[in-house]
Structure formats: structure tokens, C-alpha cells
Amino acid sequence: MPVFPGHxxxxxxxxxxxxxxxxxxxxxxxxxxxxxxxxxxxVATDAGDGEIVxxxxxxxxxxxxxxxxxxxxxxxxxxxxxxxxxGEYLDGRKPETVEFVDDIxxxxxxxxxxxxxxxxxxxxxxxxxxxxxxxxxxxxxxxVGDPERRFSEDALRMLRLLRFHxxxxxxxDGAALNAVRRLAPLAARLSAERVREELCKTLLSPxxxxxxxxxxxxxxxxxxxxxxxxxxAARLSEAPGELRMAVFALMVRNTGAVPSAEGLLRALRCxxxxxxxxxxxxxxxxxxxxxPVRLALAEFDAEAVLTAxxxxxxxxxxxxxxxxxxxxxxxxxxxxxxxxxxxxxxxxKIREILRxxxxxxxxxxxxxxxxxxxxxxxxxxxxxxx
Length: 386
Ligand code: ATP
Ligand code: MG
Hints:
The chain has helices at 6-17, 27-33, 49-55, 104-109, 132-138, 147-153, 156-168, 174-183, 192-203, 210-216, 235-238, 241-254, 261-267, 272-288, 293-299, 302-312, 315-324, 337-342, 347-362, 370-383, and strands at 22-25, 42-45, 59-63, 68-73, 76-82, 84-86, 98-100, 119-120, 126-127, 140-141, 171-172. By secondary structure, it is α+β, with helices and mostly antiparallel strands. The protein has a seven-stranded mixed β-sheet. A two-stranded antiparallel ribbon has the order 6-7. Strands 10-11 form a two-stranded parallel ribbon. The structure holds adenosine-5'-triphosphate and magnesium ion (MG). The site of adenosine-5'-triphosphate (ATP) has 11 residues, from helix 7.
């Protein structure tokens, strides 16, 4: 059963030919069984990192302390890790030590969920000590071993549980959810980067509403005061993926649980682009509270308006207005700053007038033709004196 891409088979075969045991493990086995193309490949072996490095021409020692080597082949990269068991967890985040072992089953036992704790060899034979295949059939997410113990060891597993619920559409086992309810406060110790990654994968999944479940279970309490209540989660699905982080932040802000959407994304160490979008969307939302969508599209950046509209539950309307294109931005006006300079205006005043004209044209009050626009300026600044 040739389920592996060539470069993964090369890694498995090379290790075996050198007398080692080697298996594809974790997410790639799960995704293969689900018929979803895995996006990365992890191999576990009884070979030590020195032996792995000696067997392949191009390698990068990615996590020496944990015995991980990235093998680079023409077909792609494969993470190869020595079978290991985790030592004691003292801080709820990372094991104090790792211990190399020679049984794949022990390596599988340290993994978070049964569906993520299977190994597959080069012939397609599967090692599945915790019933992962059965859980895939039942569409069920269960922890390997007692959920309270596993979540206390590493609180990130609670966020991963809800992330896989969102990505795979599987139900979460009741005992696991009870454990999340009890142990959610432990998530406050996690680094923002790890939390952001799970939140981001959840928001980009087919069920982004699970991000709101993360809030409701208290898993994001480290980032928001009263743990955002009554967020209209269904709105997340309407927005395209690249806007969802900002939409989410804006909806949290609307509950009053954070002072600003941009601040929330900064605390979560989101990308500069996401933070900026959240900030721009907050300003667009203020605009939308006072003016129709069409005028907001004339005045603010389109992505910011769409984001604010999605958070407000009218993404479809904003999208349609954007596509209809019946708004005129400053850059599309039939007069320019130069024309206004000739009339004796300067700097800020010029920007203010152009903005006024773009709204005036968009609302249908003035035609977008130079004489009409110049006439409009004269009338306005005569009426308003200054
Ligand atoms: P993805 O499709 O997002 O890559 P994945 O399941 O492969 O999902 P990774 O973060 O790539 O997730 O981790 C690879 C494997 O390592 C997992 O399938 C799981 O077996 C194990 N693993 C990852 N994080 C943890 C954790 N916090 N606790 C226990 N096991 C973990
Ligand atoms: Mg993976």
C-alpha cells in the first residue's frame, strides 16, 4: 500500500536498511487514514540523532534536546525524531527532561489524542495501541490516558482538543470536556505564540466558531478580562479566512472584555498585518455606526470595512456593495490635490476637502466631474465660511 510520498518512503527505507525501526507518526498517519493530504510528515525511529545525521546527506538538527533532525530530500522535508518518553512536567508546558526509549508504543503514549497516537510503517501496517482507528470511525476525540493528568502536564492539549474538533469535525469525549472545564485556568501559563497558533488554526478551519468555545471554556482568560460573553460565533464563518482573526478580535472587543481589538491581537503576538487590520477595522466600525456601508467604503480601506461588517453581522451586504463598486474614493475623484492647491488650499485642508468630495460623490449629491466638484467646493466653503 504505497500511501507515502516518495521522500517519506526514502527516509523509512534508509533507516530500516541500516537496521533501525522507523514509522510515520502522529498527524500524518491520522490525515492519511482520513484521506486528507497531510501537510507535514513526522517519522519516529529508534536511531539516535547522530545516526540519523550520518545516514542522510542533508540534515538540520532542529531540536537536539528532543532528538529531532530535519532530513531534507528533493521531494520535501521530513522531521525525524528518536523514540522518546517525556520526563516530569513541572510547569504545565514542557517536560523537564526527555528520555529516549526503544519502543514505539512508549513514544505513542506521550501523544495527546488517540487519533494522533498511531504509527505506520513503510508497508502501511499500523500500530494503534489506544484505539485511534476506532475513534476515527466514531469521529471522537479522546486523550491518551486520563484527561486531567494529560492536560495538567501540558495545558496546550486543551486548546488542541478544540482545534481538532474544529478542523476534523469530531466530537470531544465528555470526560475530556469535563477536564477542560476544571483545568482551563492552567492555559494562562502558556506562551502567547502557542495559544495564537491553535486559535489561528481553529479560525481557519471549517468550524471557526470553536474559537468562541475556547473563550467559553475559559481557555483564553489570560487575554481578556471578563472572558467575552455571548459572542455571535456564527458570524465567523461568513468572513474569509484572512479576516477572521481580526473579526474575532473585534467581536471580543464588542463584548467589553478587552479595550481594543488591535491590543488583543498584539497580546497574542499576531502578525503585524493582522494587528493593523484589527486597528483599521475598529475605526471602520466607528464609521459604520454613523454612515451607510457605501460611504464607509469610500472613506476606509475595503478590508477594514469588510472586517467590521463581518463582526457586525452584515458581511454579505458589505461584500455586495464592494462588488457593485458604487462608491468613489479620493483617488478616483475627477479633481486632485493639485487642483485644490490652485484654489489656494493647503495640506490638511486639501485632505479634508477631498474626503468631503468623495463622500459627496458617493452619496450621489455631486457628480464626479471636475466643474461640478469645483462648484461644490466653492458652495461648501462659501456656506461654511472656512
Ligand atoms: P497538524 O496537522 O496541525 O500538523 P499534528 O497532529 O501533526 O497537526 P503537530 O503539532 O504537527 O500536530 O504535532 C505532531 C504530533 O505530535 C501530533 O500528532 C501529536 O502526536 C504530537 N503532539 C503535538 N503536540 C503535542 C502536545 N502538546 N502533547 C502531546 N502530543 C503532542
Ligand atoms: Mg503536524
